[in-house]
Amino acid sequence: MEYVTLNNGIKMPAVGFGVFQIKKKDECVRVVLDAIESGYRLIDTAQSYGNEEAVGEAIQKTNVPREELFITTKVWITNYGYENAKASVEDSLKKMQLDYLDLVLLHQPFKNYHGAYKALIDLYKEGKIKAIGVSNFYPDRLVDLCLDTEVIPAVNQVEVNPFHQQEKALQYNQKYGVQLEAWAPFAEGKNGVFNNETLSGIGQKYNKSVGQVILRWLVQRGIIPLAKTVRKERMLENIDIFDFELTDEDMQLISDMNKDTSSFFSHYDPATVEMICGLKR
């Protein structure tokens, strides 16, 4: 496994495994154990996923030492505000049976995220969190937060895939020393991504799958990808991306695929904001 160094000196695995939509406890425990056995050390969950307990159970069952794992969760907006956010992270620690979390993110850039972020700062200072950050913070919200905090976010997790390449986001995250992390690197299969001729052609050059090409493209851009699957053979495939390197020509071909549009929704859309703020964890 390769690692990146965050702005506070903490080392974070260069690729990770996400557990979004894996809600059945037994399945989630099995999947996380399979991911760890496959070589993943970064496991990404969230309060809103409803599977923190299952992730914690897998951590207790694995033979891999806790200090070798990098565990992330995210605070949901219903837990924003200083007191609520701090209590919710303490609750997440109990659910996962952990003494500390490696990374905690604010899940959405809405409502009282400034108060919630101050809670993360205090938990970080107490040693209960090794690094803090945000998720889905577009450049304007990220800059707003960075200019009004004593602790710059270490990570910002946003949608990044060949159709939504987030070049502006990458530029501003790098400017402020924030590590960009990609959710939905495969766009959940939308736009026929796995049958795309450009990606398939590049993959054939290296005897790699479309998924491996996408993940390698992200790593070479300095972005940490989070891939999710419930199949162990796919986990092994998705982590096997460090034995080849895309050329500048390959990178440009993928760059040309950019539609600069989300495959899901825009956080700039008022209806999306209303929808997200109305969700319960």
TrEMBL record:
List, alphabetically, the InterPro entries matched. AKR (IPR020471), Aldo/ket_reductase_CS (IPR018170), NAD(P)_OxRdtase_dom_sf (IPR036812), NADP_OxRdtase_dom (IPR023210)
All copies of the NADP-dependent oxidoreductase domain together span 16-257
Q: Name one Pfam family in it.
A: Aldo_ket_red
- Assigned protein family: Belongs to the aldo/keto reductase family.
- Which residue positions are annotated as catalytic? 49 (proton donor)
- What CDD domains does this protein's entry cite? AKR_AKR5F1
Source domain of life is Bacteria
Keywords, in A-Z order = NADP, Oxidoreductase
Task: Decide whether keyword Cell cycle is in the record.
Answer: no
Gene Ontology MF: a single term: oxidoreductase activity, acting on the CH-OH group of donors, NAD or NADP as acceptor
The organism of origin for this protein: Coprobacillus cateniformis
Q: What is this protein called?
A: Oxidoreductase
Q: Which residue positions hold the site described Lowers pKa of active site Tyr? A: 74
- Residues that hold substrate according to the record: 107
